[in-house]
Design goal:
Length: 474
């Protein structure tokens, strides 16, 4: 057997940062997927012998993958049962709804918990094999809560970080989890636990005190003979890359053509969501339908473009959601549309980055109204794409982004009247007001981009500063 190559930096995430693409000749090729985390870490990973541990998609034996842009890909295999019980079950039908205010009912099954432990252990073992002595390991998200603890048991020499991309709920909700103590202990295997918002770190500290009876503040927790640090590190996007894309002449031309194709309306409202019950799509459609019914918005004047990319399609709650949304879009178009003039342009396909940038440039109002969201990168992408300082961002108070982009038109998506009022205000805002708000938000994102996020997290994790000096030297 060839000797396992080891790295001084290991990123561990449920998915590897690659997609398999069908080449024109039908052959299968692996390509770097356009994810924010990959862009954030890429400058660092390139200059360090780094490995990414994750699942490549599919079930059965793990494919051996080539390095991608100099980063080693270490695959973890998942069986059909693992996928059903760990990914679709415990991660996405227990933790995901619970962490998002239980807007859908979380489900609890003992079989799911067994799979969660088993799959986390497999990730911990795979990581242990590829991490060199004293390496820095960065574990991502709610699929892998137990990995820090399991990895510490295997490899106490490692420096371990954990970052949660989704909200971390208040004690009233988290306490419902039958295996709450194990989950908390798993996270505390890390040296640094990072969240999107300070409130989440506060919730975590409260829970650790309550459930594990450990001494905890919002910054530090004592466990065994160690101190675990906790804190907020709001994730961001590659602001410069999105701005450069949106400035390209072909993207501007595509945006102009899109506007024509939409019938040259006076105003375009855009929403781009993963099809998920946390994103508030149904509430938004209801508000829009009432604005149409009340005559506040007229179909020829204004169009709504709703991009809703299906995800987790084998999870029952997601199938039901899709049916409900499609029925409602059909109803609204049937009632308010005209021949060649639908009230809502509804699109479910994936867009490439340039098309997405063109859509952002066309949108006079970008409606991002999740019921709860760890951050929401779409809102940040829209702001980064508005190199013309134009465009109104309608943003839910319950998106992590709202803590940073306070100049957006903020709304409570649970309040139908408030949502309608917010949409009306954004549609009728004066150009001067829109520009002033957009400028302030753009200035914020310019300073707080994804590299700043990775740098601030890793400098807190890696106290010796070796990794970060490499990052900043690039
Ligand atoms: P998500 O819930 O997936 O992320 P979000 O942050 O909005 O939500 O990211 C979605 C990404 O998918 C964006 O980059 C967007 O451009 C892209 N996307 C959406 N529809 C698309 C389409 N049709 N075609 C192509 N791309 C599309 C989770 C958490 C968030 C947190 C992020 C990052 O739920 O709260 O912000 O992780 O930490």
């Amino acid at each position: 057997m060839p000797e396992m190559r080891q790295s001084s930096l290991v990123v561990v995430a449920n998915r590897l940062p690659i997609d398999d693409n069908q080449a024109p000749d039908g052959a299968c090729e692996w390509r770097r997927s356009p994810g924010g985390l990959v862009s954030a870490l890429h400058p660092l990973l390139r200059h360090t012998p780094a490995t990414w541990v994750g699942w490549a998609g599919g079930t059965g034996t793990a494919p051996a993958l080539p390095d991608v842009d100099g980063v080693r890909m270490h695959t973890v295999a998942l069986s059909h049962d693992d996928l059903r019980d760990h990914y679709e079950g415990f991660a996405n039908a227990t933790l995901w709804p619970l962490y998002h205010d239980s807007v859908e009912q979380p489900q609890h099954h003992r079989r799911w918990w067994e799979a969660y432990q088993r799959v986390n252990q497999r990730f911990a073992e795979a990581t242990s094999e590829v991490a060199e002595q004293g390496a820095v390991v960065w574990v991502q998200d709610y699929h892998l809560h137990l990995v820090p603890g399991q990895l510490r048991a295997l490899r106490p020499d490692l420096r371990i970080g954990f970052f949660l991309h989704v909200p971390f709920p208040p004690p009233e909700l988290f306490m419902q989890l039958p295996r709450r103590a194990e989950l908390l202990r798993g996270m505390l295997g890390a040296d640094l636990v990072g969240f999107q918002r300070a409130q989440a770190a506060h919730n975590f500290a409260q829970l650790v005190t309550k459930v594990l009876e450990l001494p905890a503040t919002d910054r530090r927790i004592g466990i065994d003979d160690r101190v675990v640090r906790i804190g907020a590190f709001p994730v961001s996007i590659d602001t410069a890359e999105m701005a450069a894309l949106a400035s390209r002449p072909d993207v501007a031309a595509r945006a102009r053509r899109l506007r024509q194709d939409l019938g040259d309306p006076r105003q375009v409202i855009l929403s781009v969501d993963r099809m998920d019950y946390t994103k508030g799509i149904e509430q938004r459609l209801k508000a829009y339908s009432e604005l149409l019914a009340g005559g506040d918005v007229k179909v020829r004047d204004t169009v709504l473009v709703q991009v809703a990319m299906p995800s987790r399609e084998r999870v029952g709650q997601y199938q039901i959601l899709r049916e409900r949304i499609e029925r409602e879009v059909g109803r609204i178009n049937g009632e308010f549309g005209r021949v060649g003039e639908p009230a809502i342009h509804y699109l479910t396909r994936p867009f490439d980055r340039a098309e997405l940038a063109a859509l952002y440039r066309v949108a006079d109002v970008m409606a991002v109204t999740p019921l709860r969201d760890g951050m929401n990168l779409v809102a940040k992408e829209y702001v980064a794409a508005r190199v013309d300082d134009d465009g109104a961002l309608l943003l839910s108070e319950f998106a992590g982004t709202a803590a940073e982009l306070s100049q957006a038109y903020l709304v409570n998506p649970h309040d139908l009247e408030g949502l309608k009022q917010g949409l009306r205000a954004a549609l009728r805002a004066s150009p001067a007001d829109v520009t002033e708000r957009m400028r302030a938000m753009r200035a914020h994102l310019h300073r707080h981009d994804i590299r700043a996020w990775a740098r601030s997290y890793l400098s807190a994790l890696d106290e010796t500063g070796t990794l970060v000096s490499r990052l900043t030297s690039t």
